[in-house]
Write a structure and sequence with these properties.
By secondary structure, the protein is an all-alpha fold. The protein has 2 domains: 101 residues, Orthogonal Bundle (Cytochrome Bc1 Complex, Chain D, domain 2), CATH 1.10.760.10; 89 residues, Cytochrome Bc1 Complex, Chain D, domain 2 (Orthogonal Bundle). The protein is 50% helix and 0% strand. The chain has 11 helices and no strands. Helix 2 packs across helix 6 and helix 9 crosses helix 10. The longest helix is centred in the first third of the chain and has 18 residues. It is globular and about 65 Å long. It starts with a helix and ends with a helix. Bound molecules: heme C (2 copies).
Amino acid sequence: MKFPRGSLAGACALMLAMQVQAADGQKIYTQGGANPAAMACVMCHGANGEGMAAGGFPRLAGLSAEYMRKQLDDIRSGQRSAPVMQPVIAALSDEEIRAVTDMLAAMPAADVPQVTRVEKADGIGAELALRGAWARNIPECVSCHGPSGVGVGDSFPALAGQPAQYLSGQLQAWRQGTRKNDPNDLMGHIARSLTDAEIQAVSEYFANLSQQ
Ligand code: HEC
Ligand code: HEC
């Protein structure tokens, strides 16, 4: 078939516009993507994107869309090993990923009380979060992840309101080298410097902040 140049371009633009319209973030979240292997996110990430503590499934509501897209790219490329998420992501188109992450970024997340660095740090978790362990070159978590660990911009994700099991799982993954997608080994260095008890304590600290 032969089209005059102009009408072909026009037809392409129209098809593209239809595709963009077809990728509906809310629908992908609750019903899955066009490819059936892209299972509905809601099954694992909760009705309101709040995550599922018992399964260690992360909260997604209110995270930066850019951060989520970086993580999904890293999971797809294997820089971040995530055997449960990997087949879901492999079955989503870039258009679908854009739509669902934009939708999730706009979802409201649970409120977190403001904890400043000058506050009393009670226990190992709070101590690491608010003061760090400078003798071992571990900066306080809030220096990068923001006050109360609410996240900063597109690079430093929220820790507050994430399930403890998810947070400790990520720290263990860095330690074991199955997650190696952080710029300059920032988190790899920190995770390898923490003890198991410290990983547990600091994960519980951030997970419980939104429930105080
Ligand atoms: C069968 C369960 C399951 C389904 C369905 C699922 N996920 Fe996940 N997702 C996970 C798990 C488990 C992780 C954590 C992976 C790890 O351990 O690193 C994750 C991690 C993520 C992350 C990284 C979050 C972060 O803070 O780094 C994003 C973004 C994400 N999922 C988006 C989605 C989207 C969008 C969908 C739907 C299209 C979806 N997931 C469907 C289980 C699931
Ligand atoms: C020097 C800056 C810096 C400090 C200090 C820091 N982090 Fe991070 N953290 C990062 C960056 C950057 C990422 C995102 C890495 C990526 O792009 O995958 C991250 C990601 C994480 C994640 C993964 C979250 C997710 O949903 O993907 C966890 C868990 C985490 N940090 C815990 C901590 C804890 C606990 C501390 C304190 C002991 C801490 N971080 C201190 C920079 C920092």
